[in-house]
Amino acid sequence: MARVFLTVLISTLLFALIYINIRALSRPHHGAADDHNAFTRILEESVVSSGSIRGKAEESNDEAFDEGDNEKVAELEGKLQGMTEFLGDLKVKLNKLTQQATSEAKKETKQRETSSQKVGRLAESKEEPPSQQSKEPKAKTNPTGMNILLLYADDWTHHTLSSFHKTQPPNTILKTPTLDALSQDGIRFTHNCVTTSVCWISRATLFTGQYMSRHNTTEPCCWSGMPKPKEKLKEAPENWKELSVYELLKKEGYHVGHAGKWGVYMPWPKSVDFNVEDDGWHYRQIGDKLWHITEKNEADALRFLVTRPRDKPFFLNVAFFATHAKDSDVRQYMPQNSSMSLYAEDEIPIPPTGTEEAWKKMPYFFSERNEGRTRWRARYQNYTLHQHMMKNYYRMATEVDSACGVILEELRRQGELDNTFIIFTTDNGNFHSEHGLADKWYPHQESIRTPLIIRDPRMKDSDKGTTNDAFTLNIDLAPTILGAAGIAPPDKYMGQDMSQLYLKQSAYDQWRKEFFYEHPVISKASYIPSSEALVRKDWKYMFWPDYGYEQLFDLKNDPGEIDDLWNSTDPKVKEVLKDMKSRFAEL
Questions:
Q1: pLDDT one-digit tens code per residue, 179-196
Q2: Which residues lie across from 283 on neighbouring strands?
Q3: Which residues is 421 bridged to in the sheet?
Q4: Which residues, including other chains, have CB under 8 Å from residue 286's CB and lie 6 or more apart?
Q5: Percentage of the residues of the chain whose pLDDT score is greater than 90
Q6: Strands 431-432 and 514-519
Q7: Contact 478, 195 (CB under 8 A)
Q8: Helices marked H in 341-424 — which ranges?
Q9: Can you give the pTM of this predicted structure?
Q10: Which residue intervals define the domain Sulfatase N-terminal in the entry (predicted)?
């Protein structure tokens, strides 16, 4: 009899779960909370309607996974009508069956507890005694219950945010209203940096919480003029399985998704429930629709949010490809046609260090063959070209900002906005003609400093809308993400949980005051030389291993890193250099 009751109970719960998911997909959603009206109002005013959101999510169907999702939703919706009456009849019976089953369960429990043979009870339930159980931590369900959303852009330097220009106003033209609103409802970290400024290595650091020299992901993927890499590995390295935030979150009960650029020349973690990779293009014909990459990234993110199971928290990395240039195309930056009127009448200032004089002050081995210089010629070598490229770059940045607004609005409609830990950051910075260069790679501020915004439901109201100048790094992202889920980070992680900076008063004083930067040689030293640095807020020591070349910059008085003080005779400068070289050797 108890078995019958149990069967009926399980069937009922399954039907109820399907019913709840269908209702969640089909019903109109209302605001998650009234205490962040300014933020939610911006989302409501700046994005498309809920119907359009659902339509966009369903349009993106270039993967077999997409077809299956849509068919699954349609099938479930068809079952809903016949299920409603059945659930109504079953509800009354369920109460009676539950009472009866509970009564019998209590009797059985009492009988078992009277038995003195504890080992026998363990054998009956097929569990191992505690001393023999696996030492592997068991999966937890909803450790904190918080969802985690990572909005991860590409090639944004730290000032590619209009909120930055409220405090540093050399260029007030760029508009990113969604991210500005996010920073007003969270914290903007003003000294966030990457430990290696290049796409695939920075992403590997994000996923594993380790420096390049530890995770060893140094092989680039498919660059023109370089040897073709080997076939993708059939399995990720063992250390990735134990360190990857994807793997660890999935193990702890999260629904895990990735939409956009993967960027690491290794196979996907098998634990990713939703996986749509798109990068390397700005426009592509998919089926009968011409997609822009940012539009596609947005639609895939929406599809994840619309189709996700509602009985578990989620982690989603929306890895936008913009504002990465399409290096093989002479146009470089190709925004959406609807954005072409943006910034049309504006004049984008040339950076103070975007001069021939600044280029001539670069180390002697930076020749016209250097890849950063080659890309400078393609993008910024004259005023007209600089205006054209930067306007298109800004247009693509504003498009990413708009896509972030659409995604956040979907969270608000679902009532999940205030139950979601949100991070916006990027993989590396970018030269926009500073030092006569384009792109990234080197230890200069434009290359290593990136935007970082965190909006955390656990934040105090007094912390919202503030800035924090602690040295946060991309090695801190993995432990911060796991911390938001209530998961202890692996011992091999090299970063720290950044939430300590606003949840613990003493954390700032104990936070790092310097960090080590590293970058490998790519192809050959004349193309992209290797570089290392010891970075402090006021000083930076650079070392170029391929040439044994050293530099020292006073960032407080020379933030543009123009005047190399390595040969200075000033006793104070010589003392700083001695101290930094000693510390650099330790690292």
A1: 999 999 999 999 999 999
A2: 292
A3: 148
A4: 62, 296
A5: 59
A6: unpaired
A7: no
A8: 356-360, 371-379, 383-413
A9: 0.78
A10: 147-487
